[in-house]
Amino acid sequence: MNYTTEELMIVAASKQLDDEEVVFVGTGLPMLACLVAKATHAPNLFMLFESGIIDPKPSHLAKGVGDFRLLKGATKRTSLNYVLTLLQGGYIDVGFLGAAEVDQYGNINSTFIGGNYTAPKLRLPGSGGANDIASNAKRTLVIMPHQKRKFKRNLSYLTTPGFLTGGDSRAQAGLIGGGPSRVITDKAILDFEPISKKMRLLAVHPGVTTEEVQELTEFELLISDDISVTTEPTEEELSIIRELDKEGIYVNKNLA
């Protein structure tokens, strides 16, 4: 079966979502993963966006969280303040995030790379709602490419909290959310060991080795006692993705 790396990531991420969960979701691969989940095993998945759009049923893929195409079939259109109060009230089951950098405890940088805050080598978009999402959602999912420059021993800047310094440091900081549960990359699926809260390799994608994943990670990964291989996408799942992203906005059309 032919599929792209992005399609494999989308399907793997979709399987992390359960029916009737409330997901605070960004556009791009997270939105595609949610729509695949809704079309397959989680028809009652409830999506909301930072722009205040709640539970849309888009027929065309949005290019941003405020894209008017997201308004189609929406239950409600409110405001940033309203959806953030839902986070603070503990109503959000899953926060779905990307990252420029991530460390062994699932802390995320999306602010700058290199240099310092006032004189960075590369300025990034910043938190947006990501800090609020990761601080308050019951759990978070992260989806990103697996590269050594992104899986860092030390972040250039801590934008969004994961498990901070590990152990019970997140709870000690007073964060009500449960923290990151999975990191889905183009090479593997990772979780966090329950006691130390260090990142752990859970599954590799077809054709990828444990050694390759470690080579692409600056810090030392914990390794699950039972490494599995990610299930390949089905024809149904691929057809859903390709129908949604006909123009190849988020999914590379060059098959892996």
Give the key terms.
256 residues; alpha/beta; Glutaconate Coenzyme A-transferase; eight-stranded mixed beta sheet; two-stranded antiparallel sheet; 7 helices; globular
- CATH C-level label: Alpha Beta
Order of SSEs: HEHEEEHEEEEEHEHEEEHEH
Arithmetic mean pLDDT: 93
Task: Please report the number of helical segments.
Answer: 7
The third-level CATH topology is: Glutaconate Coenzyme A-transferase
State the CATH architecture.
3-Layer(aba) Sandwich
Given helix and strand content, the structural type is alpha/beta
Portion in strands: 15-25%
Number of strands: 14
Largest sheet: 8 strands, mixed
Spatial strand sequence of the major β-sheet: 2-1-5-10-11-12-13-14
Approximately how much helix is present in the residues? 10-25%
Please, what is the oligomeric state? single chain
Question: Would you kindly provide a brief summary of this structure?
Answer:
With 256 residues, this protein is an alpha/beta fold. Helix content is 22%, strand content 22%.
Explain how this protein is built:
The structure is a single chain. This protein has seven helices and 14 strands. The strands form four sheets. Strands 2-1-5-10-11-12-13-14 form an eight-stranded mixed sheet, sandwiched between helices. It is an alpha/beta fold and 256 residues long. Helix 2 (29-39) links the parallel strand 1 (22-25) and strand 2. Helix 1 (5-14) crosses helix 2 (29-39) and helix 2 crosses helix 7. The model has no long low-confidence stretch (mean pLDDT 93). The protein has a single domain (5-244), classed as Glutaconate Coenzyme A-transferase, CATH 3.40.1080. The longest helix has 11 residues, at 29-39.
